[in-house]
Amino acid sequence: MILEAVVDGRVGEFHLQVRFRAGGGVTALFGPSGAGKTLTLRHIAGLNRPEEGRITLGDRTLFDSERGIHLQPQERAVGYVSQESVLFPHLSVAGNVGFGLHREPRSRRNRRIAEVLELVELAGYESRSPDTLSGGEGRRVAMARALAPRPSILLLDEPFAGLDFRVRRTLRRRLLAIHENTGVPILLVTHSLADVREVCDELVLVDRGRTVAAGSAGELMASPPSPHAAELLAEDMA
User: Fold this and answer.
1) d(Cα 234, Cα 53) in Å, to the nearest integer?
2) Are 91 and 98 in contact (CB under 8 A)?
3) What was the pLDDT predicted at 238?
């Protein structure tokens, strides 16, 4: 499943102009705060509408300004986890994970909830309340909720931010296992070069709303294609 995004739009005074192609592996959007990374995810998820451009996922067109196509978020088959990873406090873990499965028969819904909780190593947590979870557990429940409807791509906004290094390391391994077990492409926003090194196949460098470079993570980090790219990769921003 290939994602291709050409996005041109303004949000207030900020002008976003990004262009990149992400393959079927794990791709990082990397750059400083305020670079436009989260905004890019929101455009792909359908939460913001560009002024111009085209976004395709495999053979499906999610947005095309020239053809007047703008699929609503629920039509895109995109899983999105915001940086806050907000869970519904009045629902159990099972209720949170199954939120997007309300049209499924109960037996199938319960089976899918159990499957994705096992995938994120939280089997048996169905009856737990969100306020009993650690930060890392909450992030995993949010990922499970996004994965439950079987999305075509998973978008993660700073999935490891604010966690200590042990939890961060565990979640990196879990993210790789999720990709290996599901095959779903993953596009994640990060400020951390360690995240890029340990989990990402491809890398998109973004700064001031523009794509600076895009390609193989290993190749870009070993040989930045421009002084600007080298400057961005010279310092871990986490």
Assistant:
1) 31
2) no
3) 59
- One-letter identity of residue 100: G
Where do the domains of the chain lie? 87-150
Model-level pTM? Answer: 0.94
Q: What does the pLDDT read at residue 21?
A: 93
Q: Do 22 and 3 form a contact (C-beta atoms < 8 A)?
A: yes
**Could you report the average pLDDT of every consecutive run of 10 residues in the chain (238 residues)?**
90 91 95 93 95 95 96 95 88 95 92 96 96 93 96 94 87 92 95 92 96 96 95 79
Angle between helices 106-119 and 165-182 (to 10 degrees): 130
Burial classification of residue 162, based on how many CB atoms lie within 10 Å of its CB (0-12 exposed, 13-18 middle, 19 or more buried): exposed
Q: In what order do the strands lie in the sheet with 202-207?
A: 69-70, 60-64, 52-57, 3-11, 14-22, 210-216, 202-207, 26-30, 186-190, 153-157, 78-81
C-alpha atoms less than 13 angstroms from C-alpha of 218 in its C-beta half-sphere: 3
Q: Report the C-alpha gap between 199 and 156 in whole angstroms.
A: 13
- Sign of the C-alpha dihedral computed for residues 15, 21, 24 and 27 taken in this order: negative
For residues 5 and 55, what is the distance between their CA atoms, to the nearest angstrom? 4
